[in-house]
Amino acid sequence: FSAVAAGRAQVQQEPSAETTEGTGISISCSHPTIQITDFIHWYRQLPGRGPAFIALALKGSKDVQDPPGRLSVAADRRSSALWLARPRRGDAVVYYCALGD
Q1: Terminus of the chain with fewer CB atoms < 10 Å: N or C?
Q2: CB atoms within 10 A of CB 55
Q3: Is 25 left (phi over 0), alpha (psi -120 to 50) or beta?
Q4: Count of CA atoms in the C-beta half-sphere (13 A) of 77
């Protein structure tokens, strides 16, 4: 299982992360210049498809349905992480985080 991460200039992500099928993995995103009104958006992109929305958050943490997992935002909001609880082969796609309204 391999997940590739990418992001725009305001955010930084590790280029890739690996795990085995069924073993949870955390995909992190750093956004040190986040503004007070910015939401943190997460998307994933399957091959040949456009980006698909996963979740957004302002603070704290929340459960994510598809893929199953959890989105957590650090207390200072300068980073966030998407936890994939039981990744499958089909979850080995590109994950993006972005800041915005």
Answers
A1: C
A2: 17
A3: beta
A4: 15
| One pLDDT digit (tens) per residue for the chain, 101 residues | 445 555 444 899 988 889 999 999 999 999 999 999 899 999 999 999 999 999 999 999 999 999 999 999 999 999 999 999 999 999 999 999 999 88
**What SS3 state is found at 85?**
coil
Strand partners, 65: none
Cβ-contact 54, 42 below 8 angstroms: yes
pTM: 0.86
The whole-number pLDDT of residue 15 equals 87
Paired tokens of 83: 């936890």
Two structure tokens written together for 66: 């598809």
- Peptide bond preceding 67: is omega within 30 degrees of 0, i.e. cis? yes
Only one residue has tokens 């986040």, namely 34
